[in-house]
Amino acid sequence: MELSGMERYRSLTLAAPTAIPAPRRLVTREPRPLGSGWLAPILLLAAAPLAAQRPFSATYDPSRHVTLKGPVTRIDWVNPRAFVFLNVTDAGAVANWAVEIGNPLDLEGDGWKRTSLRIGDVVTVDGILAFGQEKQVLATSVVVARTGKKVFAPAAKPHASAARQPAPRWPDGRVRLGPAPGKKGYWGAASVTALAENQSPAIAMNRDGLLANLTDAARVAPFQPWARALYEYRQRRLLQDDPAARCLPTGGPRLFHTPPGFQFVEQRELGRILVLAGGGDRNWRVISTDGRPQGQPDEVVRSYYGNSVGHWESDTLVVDSIGFNERFWFTSGGLPHTEALHLVERFSRPDLNTLKYEVTVDDPRAYTRPWTGGWTVQWVPDEEIQEYFCEENAESTFLR
After folding, report:
1. What's the sign of the alpha-carbon dihedral 258, 259, 261, 262?
2. DSSP calls for 241-261
3. How many other CB atoms are there within 10 angstroms of residue 232's CB atom?
4. pTM here?
5. Residue 53 has pLDDT above 80, yes or no
6. Is 75 left (phi over 0), alpha (psi -120 to 50) or beta?
7. Is the CB of residue 64 less than 8 Å from the CB of residue 21?
8. Cα 181 to chain centroid, rounded
9. How many CB atoms lie within 10 A of CB 169?
10. Is the pLDDT at 281 greater than 60, yes or no?
């Protein structure tokens, strides 16, 4: 069953298998004690200001719920994160709170608009508190006092599964990675949101790639000792050092599991395929398919997307990539890599609605052996990727 609206958005934070206590009414921001567990040291970070693009795992504390009530003072309907601001009175003092309500594109898909709420409306909000002392909440429920009704709730409608159809093809019979002629669409939701070595059972982690149990780190990939230590350090800091939070490109496999999706533009006459990213700063990656050989590692200019050379093996596009810099995380969750990173990716389209992605990671400086992971991505038919720019939610949003 596909999630929608606020429900789908909230899953980004709540997907970790953590017991969530019932909501409680708070009038102060004092953190309650945490039990034993590896996340406890993270509270030492509470004094740090919250960045607007910080991963959800580093922003909201699922163990702390709050109920707020007050008039709406401002509505920011900005992709990818919409906020409602309200004045809350506590012990005679008034404080302005930022309430995150979801992705406006998802909310609009469920029939909600910026005008669904008015400035001056009194609302009651149940939500999850941010870490630290920031007056910020991720809403799980918003109720308008004048109507007694919830707003920004998921639409009560079923999501029908698309009928299985064959993949579109070029006149010469080769499979198309994009839409059929005269159609439109893009690749949207991936079946995972973080890369890990293929194995069973699956490793429990949330939608940011944050492990449910840090002792599973050794199962994620065959780390060199320093790389595992760095991975665990990033995990303990709740991924707050993620370069993507500073709007840097999401190179490597991460491009193919980053919302809101991506598109292939096959320029066969030029011997290349462009991969257009829907997230981040809407960057693009170039895959050369004109038969050129791969360059020498020492001669390639280091970049976020590397030097990619592809060829077709039947209906599978095989892409060899080298020449990466070390300024990005090549997957959610904080897996390290070095300039020695070498990727071999395989893209296939068994039907209209499914893209199979498999990648072999070979970085002898960071890992003890090559290893492979993969996932599937779903086709979004008859739509274009909506405009999204990372900087839209700059920290100036929270000057209030």
Report:
1. negative
2. T-GGGGT----GGGGGGSTT-
3. 18
4. 0.79
5. no
6. beta
7. no
8. 30
9. 13
10. yes
